[in-house]
Amino acid sequence: MDDLRQKYIGAIADAADEPALEELRLQAVGKKGEVSLMMRELGKMTPDERQEMGPKLNALKDEINSALAAKKAALADAALNERLRAEWLDVTLPGRPRRQGTIHPVSQVTDEITAIFADMGFSVAEGPQIESDWFNFDALNIPPEHPARQEHDTFFMSRAEGDDRPPHVLRTHTSPVQIRAMQETGAPIRVIAPGRVYRCDYDQTHTPMFHQVEGLAIGRDISMANLKWVLEEFCRAFFEVEGVELRFRASHFPFTEPSAEVDIRCSWAGGSLKIGEGDDWLEILGSGMVHPKVLKAGGIDPDQWQGFAFGMGIDRLAMLKYGIPDLRAFFDSDLRWLRHYGFSALDVPTLQGGLSV
Ligand code: DAH
């Protein structure tokens, strides 16, 4: 029995894999295995011999079985480790999709705008697309009877029957984010707020959902001069032309005083748009000095603080910069359009690396 023990315990420890282990199991404790055959011999023994040999054989069988189980577990562990090693995968590697998707021009232009303003110290603020009447209008100095309310082609959310409070609206501009940002941060503040806005309008240059970016800078002595510099700097970087020329035209917005609409010099010669040359002017944004009432609504003391705001259409900037003729196609999800006008996912716009290479 000692020979058997030595033979099998040693062989089990040395078994290279599961099939070899199974072979050993059959040889030792299988139906016709050596230990099993010896157990059968017990019947032929005298009671005394059986008394002595029985427990010993059982112990041997147990010992071999536990050695088999332990080795089996060890082999399984080793196999798993080997698999983990062989199938190791670097999940931080970039994907290799079979068909490369593209970045939508609106996302691309939003990233470009964000990169330019981030470089000038602006951070990004956000607000909800379903906005209260107060944030969308009142806080921006557009009281209920103000004519500007009609001009906004507002989508209204419905209230429950019998609820007389003013309905929420789909925000008609990104300007309410000015109020939210002021309330959250206080002064001084420098933010842009890109996002979706909604108006009930549809033709070649209007869609019911479109994108705007709001800008807000409040400080002790921020002036129109700062506004002019920031916007010129932005246009130079965004359109990637040194000689941009802007024209500030007196205008009116309820939330700014004074207000200015800004045009950019351009040429349509030969049917294609060139920014920075020619004799035409193209309106690109609205802006002004933030109205004291708007500062107050944002929780900021107008006797202590002042600043500028501006708002422009992201989709329109995308159309101008990338020569895209019809706004409606932006939101048609036509794959041919997306492949043609989309941008590579790996070219993240930065000021150093280039905005739109
Ligand atoms: N909210 C205006 C609109 O949607 C755009 C605008 C004009 C925003 C002037 C401003 C501003 O912040 O100062 O038409």
UniProtKB/TrEMBL annotation:
Cofactor(s) annotated in UniProt: Mg(2+)
Residues covered by the Aminoacyl-transfer RNA synthetases class-II family profile domain: 116-349
Pfam family, one: tRNA-synt_2d
UniProt keyword S-adenosyl-L-methionine present: no
Subcellular location per the Swiss-Prot or TrEMBL entry: Cytoplasm
Class in the EC hierarchy, top level: ligase
GO biological process: phenylalanyl-tRNA aminoacylation
Binding-site residues for Mg(2+), renumbered to this chain: E257
GO molecular-function terms, A-Z: ATP binding; magnesium ion binding; phenylalanine-tRNA ligase activity; tRNA binding
Keyword flag Acetylation: no
Keyword annotations: Aminoacyl-tRNA synthetase, ATP-binding, Cytoplasm, Ligase, Magnesium, Metal-binding, Nucleotide-binding, Protein biosynthesis
GO cellular component, one term: cytoplasm
EC number: 6.1.1.20
Catalysed reaction equations from the record: tRNA(Phe) + L-phenylalanine + ATP = L-phenylalanyl-tRNA(Phe) + AMP + diphosphate + H(+)
CDD domains: PheRS_alpha_core
SUPFAM superfamilies (alphabetical): Class II aaRS and biotin synthetases (SSF55681), tRNA-binding arm (SSF46589)
Cofactor info, note text: Binds 2 magnesium ions per tetramer.
Subunit-level organization: Tetramer of two alpha and two beta subunits.
Family membership: Belongs to the class-II aminoacyl-tRNA synthetase family. Phe-tRNA synthetase alpha subunit type 1 subfamily.
Protein name: Phenylalanine--tRNA ligase alpha subunit
UniProt source species: Rhodovulum kholense
